[in-house]
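Retro notes (design track)

What went well: tokenization of the new backbones is finally stable.
What didn't: we kept losing track of which sequence belonged to which structure.
Fix going forward: every design gets posted as structure first, then sequence, in one message. First example under the new rule, 193 residues:
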């Protein structure tokens, strides 16, 4: 019959190569990028993103909860190093720490200490905004980088990442509708555009 020295080493090499190929494609990060153009001058768009009303316009989607409020324990959302607890519409919380501000062009927060089941998937998230003046107002490019606890969680991370991207698109639509309802007209072109 077949000896143990026959096909087994070939099969073992195949299994190892397949596992390496699969794991090599898996990342310990999931990156979501979404953009919105707001009909506000650059500085006003930056400031609007930091208002309590703008936070509440993140209503969530599917398994992603909305934001109810942010309670700043140290500082405020316009001071680097400030720390706040975000209370979500499903009762869960997470922490935000302001990491960088270059008003009106850049903002970054580190997000961690998730109280929901999400804590088993991700150890933290970095959210950045990059703003640029446009003919119609300001474009805001948002990037969310979720740091997964393991590369093995990558498939689930990507599924939830798609749901999160949809929640961000809903947030952007809510912002545009809110600004339209309050009468925001397309901004005059900025001299810095």
């Amino acid at each position: 019959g077949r000896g143990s020295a026959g096909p087994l080493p070939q099969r073992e090499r195949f299994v190892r190569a397949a596992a390496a190929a699969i794991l090599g494609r898996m990342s310990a990060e999931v990156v979501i990028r979404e953009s919105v153009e707001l009909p506000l001058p650059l500085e006003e768009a930056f400031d609007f993103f930091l208002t309590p009303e703008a936070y509440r316009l993140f209503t969530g989607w599917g398994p992603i909860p909305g934001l109810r409020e942010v309670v700043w324990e140290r500082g405020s959302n316009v001071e680097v190093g400030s720390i706040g607890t975000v209370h979500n519409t499903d009762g869960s919380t997470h922490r935000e720490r302001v990491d960088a501000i270059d008003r009106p062009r850049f903002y970054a927060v580190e997000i961690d200490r998730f109280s929901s089941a999400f804590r088993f998937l991700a150890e933290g998230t970095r959210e950045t905004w990059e703003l640029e003046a446009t003919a119609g107002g300001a474009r805001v490019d948002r990037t969310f980088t979720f740091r997964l606890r393991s590369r093995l969680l990558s498939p689930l991370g990507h599924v939830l990442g798609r749901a999160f991207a949809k929640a961000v698109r809903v947030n952007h639509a809510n912002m545009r509708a809110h600004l339209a309802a309050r009468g925001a007209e397309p901004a005059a072109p900025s001299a810095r555009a």
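Added context from the reviewer: Strands lie at 29-38, 67-74, 83-88, 93-102, 106-112, 122-134, 137-148.
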